[in-house]
C-alpha cells in the first residue's frame, strides 16, 4: 500500500545544467537542476528570482543551457555555491559565443542556446519559458545519424533532497516496442 508523504516534488533525478548569460557585458554562470521540456521547440529553466544571472536573461532574452557530465561536474558544482551578486564568475569557464549571442561553456559536450519567450513568476522563482534557437554538440557524442548518443554522452543527474549527483544509467528498453511480440 502506498503512503501519502505530502506535497513533495518527486520528479528527481534531473539533468544538471549550468545556465550562462551575459550580464553587464560579461558572462555569468549558475548551476541549476530545475529545467524541463515544455514543447519540442521550447524548454523551461527555473531559477530563484534573486540570482544575479536572471538580470541578464531578463535584459538580453538570450542564454545558454550547458549540460553537465562527470568530466566537469566539480567546476559546475562551484557555480551553485558562489553567488554572482558577490563574485565575478565571468572567468570560471573558457567559453565561446553562440550564433545568437549566448555564452557557451567550451567543456560542455552539449549546449543549447535559448531565447526567453516569457517568465512565469512563481514562489520566488523566475521560470523562463524559452525557445530553443540552436543546439551545439561535440562530435564525440554524436551517432552516425548526427544525433546525440546517450550511450556515449552521460549527463550528470541531481537528486533532491539528498543533494547527490548520479550518472545517467543503463538502457531499460525501447520506447513503443516493449509490448510488441
User: Which percent range fits the helix content?
Assistant: under 10%
Distance between the termini: 32 Å
How many E-type strands?
12
Strand content range: 35-45%
Helix/strand layout:
Blueprint: E1 14-15, E2 17-23, E3 26-32, E4 35-39, E5 42-48, H1 53-60, E6 62-67, H2 73-78, E7 95-97, E8 103-105, E9 110-122, E10 125-137, E11 156-159, E12 164-167
Antiparallel strand pairs: 1-11, 2-3, 2-6, 4-5, 5-10, 6-9, 7-8, 9-10, 11-12
Brief descriptors of the model:
181 residues, mainly beta, 7-stranded antiparallel beta sheet, 3-stranded antiparallel beta sheet, 2 helices, 12 strands
Task: Describe this protein's structure.
With 181 residues, the chain is mainly beta. It is built from 2 helices and 12 strands; from the N terminus they run βββββαβαββββββ. It has helices at residues 53-60, 73-78, and strands at residues 14-15, 17-23, 26-32, 35-39, 42-48, 62-67, 95-97, 103-105, 110-122, 125-137, 156-159, 164-167. The strands form 3 sheets. It has a 7-stranded antiparallel sheet with strand order 3-2-6-9-10-5-4. The chain has a 3-stranded antiparallel sheet with strand order 1-11-12, with no helix packed on it. Strands 7-8 form a two-stranded antiparallel sheet. The two termini are 32 Å apart. The mean pLDDT is 96.
